[in-house]
Amino acid sequence: MKKARYGLLDRYVNRANRLPRGGAYSVADHDVVLADGTVLKAAHYAPTGRARGTLVAMTPYARTGLAARFTYGVYASQGYHVLIASIRGSFGSGGEFSPMFHERDDFRDVVEWMREQGWYAGAFASIGASYLGWTQWALLSDPQPDHKAAIILAGPHDFTQFHWGTGTFTSALPVWAALINVQETRPLQSIRYAVTKAASVHRLLRRAPIDAALHEMMPRQWHWLKDRLVHEIDDPYWKPVDLSDSIDRVDIPVLISSGWQDLFLPQSLEQFDRLRNRGVDTAFTVGPWEHRGASGGPLQVAETFDWLDAHLIGTDSNRTAPVHLHVTGADEWRSLDYWPPATAPHRLHLAPGSLSDVPASGEISFLFDPADAPTFPGGPLLLGGGYADDTAVAQRADVFVVASDVLTADLEVHGTPIAALDHSAECPDSNIFVRISEVDAKGKSRNVAQGAQRVSANGTAHIELTPIAHRFSAGNRIRVAIAGGAYPHFPASPGTGENPMLAVERVSNRHTIRLAGSSITLPVAT
């Protein structure tokens, strides 16, 4: 056990999160023997003096060190025991690294071990972001009587969507695998990936076959990564990583947090809606963040402590409403009893060169080249996402772009925009990508919402875009861009009907959109 301390870093972290001065804590490593004999490594952050409660998490990332002190030390310095267990095959834990497939049983065994420790007082809360949110849903699949609260930040409950999205493979998994590949042996490379927005990994999506390029880049991860590429979205292989049933079993207070540009936002909203409809005590916070921003910051830390105080300690909460959200465009934070508020559908029809209030006739077409998919900056990426200037994409011949007239009044949208496209392609197995942006008076556009869908037949495709709470300002225009692909969000459809991760041959594919049956529907606040 390391000597208890409260150093300059701890002072900085507490001050940055607007917390009172904390106290010293120690960190000790332990072996946790699972039911099948596998030994996991776990770190116990123990506060000095009287403890306020116990927090537990399971992670594929570092449990000790500089970054871990930022994440877990802040809670220990404020008086909480924190137990962090490393999943199989990571940071000294035994077993083979096969992420997402063992956490249901393993996390329960970690909790059983924790109950035997002298410092454990009989109640705990789970906590964590991203993958650590996933492991919480794994634990919640078998509710524990002493599990009193959960704080899930930008955490999915269904990793099938993380891999295959709405039918085509997402770039998030190769980026995540690259981070895992270097985090223990070359941690500085992780920083490089963050600074460069994972550009070197994203470039692999332009190569063919992609699976061979990934194998070449990270052979040590291939034993688990290859199966994720081969099994497509409707394969029974994915059933163990779909924890949707956990949402129906939860009976403890759950705080959920996400960002409008977080890749897990739709799942976070589903979690909140389903829990609230069941009468579970739940709250939801969503800010103007991408995935990393949604995973932690002063606001999330403050709301986490408030949730712990209310549901683990039993003091009054400062939260005034279940929903706390940021309205982009308006740059306003609002507290609401529910979301979305009352809305009315506002349909904008695709027309030659514009968005129209009435249906148009005719059709447009564009040729998609999988070797040169258009780049759509920003959006819900694992690294490099968020809001970005996407003006340049409108200049490409392979992107169909239309815009509304200049708005004469503010238009506030709350909910999920829907694109209905009467679409066909020479190779029916293809991708359709739709992005809504806001164009200012100078002609500069910024992304607001987007959606993609893999289609296998010609006809009308209904595409749900990412949910938004956004105010389009008077004097600006609403722009819609439609393409057959979107680099670096997902690999290009090969135009042959093959798995895009395995395809060797790629051919260009002509897309046609018939305007009379194509529109965008915005849920406008009333």
Could you characterize the architecture of this molecule?
With 526 residues, the chain is of the alpha/beta class. The chain has 14 helices and 22 strands. It has helices spanning 8-16, 66-77, 103-115, 131-140, 159-164, 172-182, 187-195, 199-202, 210-217, 222-230, 244-247, 265-277, 291-294, 298-313; strands at residues 25-33, 39-47, 53-59, 80-86, 124-129, 147-153, 254-261, 282-290, 323-327, 332-336, 343-351, 354-356, 363-368, 399-403, 411-415, 418-425, 430-439, 445-455, 459-464, 468-472, 477-483, 509-525. The strands form 4 sheets. A 10-stranded mixed β-sheet has the order 1-2-4-3-5-6-7-8-9-10, with helices on both faces. Strands 11, 12, 13, 16, 19 and 22 form a 6-stranded antiparallel β-sheet that branches. A hairpin with a 5-residue loop joins strand 1 (25-33) and strand 2 (39-47).
